[in-house]
Fold this sequence. Notes:
The chain is built from 13 helices and seven strands. The protein has helices spanning 14-26, 39-44, 51-54, 71-80, 88-101, 103-111, 116-138, 168-174, 212-224, 232-238, 253-258, 260-269, 315-324, and strands at 4-8, 34-38, 142-145, 151-156, 180-183, 187-191, 196-200.
Amino acid sequence: xxxxxxxxxxxxxxxxxxxxxxxxxxxxxxxxxxxxxxxxxxxxxxxxxxxxxxxxxxxxxxxxxxxxxxxxxxxxxxxxxxxxxxxxxxxxxxxxxxxxxxxxxxxxxxxxxxxxxxxxxxxxxxxxxxxxxxxxxxxxxxxxxxxxxxxxxxxxxxxxxxxxxxxxxxxxxxxxxxxxxxxxxxxxxxxxxxxxxxxxxxxxxxxxxxxxxxxxxxxxxxxxxxxxxxxxxxxxxxxxxxxxxxxxxxxxxxxxxxxxxxxxxxxxxxxxxxxxxxxxxxxxxxxxxxxxxxxxxxxxxxxxxxxxxxxxxxxxxxxxxxxxxxxxx
Length: 329
């Protein structure tokens, strides 16, 4: 059986994989006769064949039927290719090959939730999605003043999978007006306010050191920590310890956790506090008559030491309205 070695341009070369996989299926090349790799892997392999030979695709068979797959399979592969497991290419091609064969194998590859290949593919995609979510949550930007005087917000992150470029769209939508760059060991992305630029991987030393704003963030984190609600197991599940060395606030977790029990006991023993005086100009909602329309609001009262009435809309009303983008009533 003739073997075929396919060398893709990079680890997430979806167009290259799609073209090669289609040609191999139409040439009736079974999965066990195909070896998949990337150019970076080939450069480190002393026994790798010549690059030209590895890019040569077989001609389609004369009786090769048109290849059609469901859109959800294409979407699955677009996420699966971001996984770091080198066997992902072979898995994707094996599923594609089975779908092209028709019959029971095709039905199982398309629909059977207990099919081994389908289960493995979906498990790997869930891992990629979790990694994307963690990147959304654990990226920490630090401002850097560039030679032209503009501020660039830089962050260092270490993903489990090849998600950096694919995940850039989230940060573009969220920080459209901010110039930022995210450095990872696999790739780097930079947004200049108008266009996204991609580059090679970086090192942790390329990221900026802590600054004064980070100290302010740590002060805020320390003050919002609630010792009575500490759940270490749940915290480590949502914020795995492998991310801690890149999170500034993680340096406080050990100290805050060790003193949580003592602080909780002091909170219980402390005397009840007296509510603060109501701010002049804010009134509690008036009672509504049973079965009738609400009473008319009380007229605005002047605040002590002021010359005019207080506004009819309080900050407590304006804040939710601003958050929803609607005008306050």
